[in-house]
Structure formats: structure tokens, C-alpha cells
Amino acid sequence: MLYDDSYRGYSSAVGNFNEDADQEYIVGVPRAELLRGQITIYRQDLGIIRNITGEQVGAYFGYALAVQDLDGNNLDDIIVGAPLYSNYTSVHSYDTGRVYVYYQNRQFPGFDDIYCRYCLHYGPDWLITSGLEDGITQMTKKSRDERQQFVWNFPLDVTFKSTNPHGWPQLIVHAYGIDFLGKSVVRGYGVCHVPITPGNHKLRLPMFVPESTSMLQKFRAWTFGTRPEYVDVKVLGQGEGREVTRVRSQGFITVSFNVVMKDMKKN
């Protein structure tokens, strides 16, 4: 419940919080919600995206606001100040203040259990001398902290040899989860080239899922739990035919590469 003296707008900031091209507004309301304080995220049309309420009466949660990418994932995080927060377990900790950090993570929003399959796509002049061309990770749950990340820590160890750089290897990742019918359904596809320089590389793979082309197909997919999927995921490593596929963005996966090369400069 908001009162006339809730101090709505006492602090404000802008950032991107709903995966579109527009900036959203964050407004601090330090006396809202029975003096617990609140911040509100607005779209540009002033529709409310989310409210976040403070935990302590009189702490002035929302007195100060800032937006910054703190964890380096290219997503805006929210920093909220509550300058009058008190630790009532100690007589010397009144009005010491507290800073709250809300990490934004859209790895796979709305899902909790995810596992991944992977495969490698490469040209005819390339040959795998050790390691597996495809595989599957364990099922993992979303972390319970503010970042809500999925972590697999699944190592891939592959050695290639080639006489021609044409057809440079690509990593294709497809993530799966369990739907309400207990079926394994795709949560996203992503693809990237293996880095062409030696060393450590961290790549962020935007994930996407195929879309049904008609309302009837969407209804059938929802009814029978048969979501659109690629029959052969290696088509993602090719240019031909992909322009006729309708897709939408859905999350991302971060992959770390450690690349070692030998005799690449020989003629």
C-alpha cells in the first residue's frame, strides 16, 4: 500500500531490464509499504515491470539507486541503498545502513532444471584425433542466490588436425529441460566458432528456440508437448536454409575455451 508521503521518486535511475531496445526507469520510494521502502521498475509507457520491497521498517530502502553491470555479463544490475538500516542485535549498530545488490540474469528465465547436449561441426579437411564429437552434461538447477545461474562445469577435451583452415570447427550447444508433462523439451540452441587464436577465451552464446509458423501449430505443440526442434542440429553450423526458420531469443550460455595450437604457421 502506498501513501501520499511515500516519497515516490526520491531516487531514480535508468537501465535495461526486459530484453528490449528501450531503457526502463527505476524509482525509489523509501516510505512505501508501511515504511519498509520499495523500488519500482517502469517501462517507458509507465507500466510497472516489478516492485522490490525492503525488509525493515524505517530503513529508507530506496533512498539511493544506481545501475551498473557488476558481474560482467553485459546485463544491468541494481544497487539500492537503505541508509537507516539497523542491526538490532547490537546496541552499537543502529542506523549503520545497508546496500542491496540485485543481479540481473537471463540465462534461462522461468526454468529451473536444465541439461545440455553438444556437438562439433567442422569441414571435410578436419579430423578429430582424440576426444568426443558430441556429448551430454548433467542436469543442473538454478542457483539460489541473486544471480540465479545454471552452472555445469562440464569439460570438453578435443584435439583436431587439419590441412586446411576452411571448415573451422564450430561448437553447437542445445539446452533441454523437463516440461509439465515430464517430457524433455528444447530450451535453446546456440552456436559459435572455436576461437582462432591460442589462449583462454570466454564466449557468451545467445540461445534461441524455433517458433511454430501458425497458431494451429502452436496450439498442437502446447497440447501434445511437441515443441519445434531441429531434426539435425548441425544445420545450425551451415548458412543454407537457416533464413527460412522462425526463431526467438531465449537465454544464453557462457563457454570457456582454452585453445592450444601447433604447427599452424607451416606452409
UniProtKB/TrEMBL annotation:
Subcellular location: Cytoplasm, Cytoskeleton, Cilium basal body; Membrane
Keyword Repeat belongs to the record: yes
Coiled coil: none
FG-GAP repeat placement: 47-111
InterPro entries: C2_B9-type_dom, FG-GAP, Int_alpha_beta-p, Integrin_alpha, Integrin_alpha_N
Keywords: Cell adhesion, Cell projection, Cilium biogenesis/degradation, Cytoplasm, Cytoskeleton, Glycoprotein, Integrin, Receptor, Repeat, Signal
GO biological process: one example: cilium assembly
Keyword Calcium: no
SMART domains recorded: Int_alpha (SM00191)
Cellular component GO terms, alphabetical: integrin complex; MKS complex
Membrane protein topology class: Single-pass type I membrane protein
Family, similarity comment: Belongs to the B9D family. Belongs to the integrin alpha chain family.
Name this polypeptide is given: B9 domain-containing protein 1
Organism of provenance: Mytilus edulis (Blue mussel)
